[in-house]
């Protein structure tokens, strides 16, 4: 019986990964949050603000998996089948001109609502396969890549960039 529930595990990991991200953001100035060069891809050099918009966009997938409305608006994607790189490029382009305050507010609200959504989800829901991938992984298995594992990847980019400043 002493087995941890999937919900408890997701919430613990979510909170544990979000806290250092929040601490890093709290120590940064508005100039640092909007200076390019934190991350680079074919689309250009990203700012921390761009990364936060990107993280928030991907977090919103979880709401769909749980049959919930999105917590925040998300930039649209072009029609058709897109690779992950093409999706990320479209997210970058769709958010790059948004004001810092708007991105920060969406980031905070998305996370708060994500925690609430997982708290309200049943173990049965979390163990279901995503409707968009009925033969694929369960929501529980998909969750880390769009949330806490994703935070850690981008937090490392931020820390590496800050170390060079």
In words, what does this structure look like?
With 165 residues, the chain is mainly alpha-helical. The protein has one domain: Four Helix Bundle (Hemerythrin (Met), subunit A) (Up-down Bundle). 64% of the residues lie in helices and 4% in strands. It contains eight helices and two strands. The protein has helices at residues 6-26, 30-33, 48-65, 84-95, 100-120, 123-126, 139-146, 148-164; strands at 39-41, 44-46. The chain has a two-stranded antiparallel sheet. The longest helix has 21 residues, at 6-26. The chain is globular. The model has no long low-confidence stretch (mean pLDDT 93).
Structural domains: how many: 1
First-last Cα distance:
50 Å
CATH architecture: Up-down Bundle
Q: Which range does the strand content fall in?
A: under 5%
Largest sheet: 2 strands, antiparallel
CATH superfamily: dinb family like domain
Query: How many helix segments?
Result: 8
Q: What characteristic shape results from the CA principal axes?
A: globular
| Helical residue percent band | 55-70%
What's the arrangement of secondary structure elements?
Layout: H1 6-26, H2 30-33, E1 39-41, E2 44-46, H3 48-65, H4 84-95, H5 100-120, H6 123-126, H7 139-146, H8 148-164
Antiparallel strand pairs: 1-2
Helix pairs in contact: 1-8, 3-4, 3-5, 7-8
């Amino acid at each position: 019986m002493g087995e941890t529930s999937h919900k408890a595990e997701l919430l613990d990991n979510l909170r544990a990964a979000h806290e250092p991200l929040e601490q890093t953001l709290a120590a940064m100035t508005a100039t640092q949050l909007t200076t390019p060069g934190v991350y680079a891809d074919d689309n250009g050099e990203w700012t921390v603000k761009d990364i936060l918009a990107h993280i928030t966009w991907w977090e919103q997938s979880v709401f769909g998996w749980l049959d919930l409305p999105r917590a925040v608006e998300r930039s649209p994607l072009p029609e058709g089948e897109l690779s992950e790189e093409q999706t990320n490029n479209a997210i970058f382009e769709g958010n790059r001109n948004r004001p810092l305050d708007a991105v920060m507010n969406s980031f905070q609200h998305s996370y708060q609502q994500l925690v609430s959504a997982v708290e309200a989800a049943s173990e049965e829901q979390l163990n279901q396969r995503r409707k968009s991938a009925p033969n694929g992984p369960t929501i529980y298995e998909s969750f880390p890549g769009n949330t806490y594992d994703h935070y850690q990847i981008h937090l490392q980019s931020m820390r590496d960039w800050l170390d060079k400043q």
